[in-house]
């Protein structure tokens, strides 16, 4: 915990996603009382996407943060706002490209189990 997934459009391959992840982890620690060593981020490149009635000229970045249950709605909202603000600092749009940034926090299911080998 936290399990973080970043999904991004192929139009945004130029972004330094590892740098974003390393900047994101301290934000999660500070905002959601997580432990730095517990933060894990996967970055996934999407292939096919559409926004409205278009399949071109749009890029999407969506960050999902899965945390153990117990955080207030206020904490979750503060975290998603901080994530979107951090995305703004790392994602620079190209001319003619509209970039859609979003984030959500969800609670991990009670069945969540992890092991470190």
Automatic annotation (TrEMBL):
**Listed InterPro entries:** 5-COMe_2-OHmuconate_Isoase, Tautomerase/MIF_sf
What is the protein name stated in its UniProt record?
A: 5-carboxymethyl-2-hydroxymuconate Delta-isomerase
Lineage: superkingdom: Bacteria
Q: Name one Pfam family in it.
A: CHMI
């Amino acid at each position: 915990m936290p399990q973080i997934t970043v999904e991004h459009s192929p139009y945004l391959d130029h972004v330094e996603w590892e740098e974003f992840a390393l900047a994101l982890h301290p934000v999660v620690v500070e905002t959601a009382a997580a432990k730095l060593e517990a933060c894990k981020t996967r970055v996934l490149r999407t292939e096919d996407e559409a926004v409205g009635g278009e399949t071109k000229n749009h890029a999407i970045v969506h960050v999902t943060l899965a945390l153990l249950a117990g955080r207030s709605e206020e904490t979750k909202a503060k975290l998603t706002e901080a994530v979107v603000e951090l995305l703004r600092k790392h994602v620079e749009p190209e001319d003619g490209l509209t970039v859609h940034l979003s984030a959500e926090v969800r609670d991990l299911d009670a069945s969540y189990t992890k092991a470190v080998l």
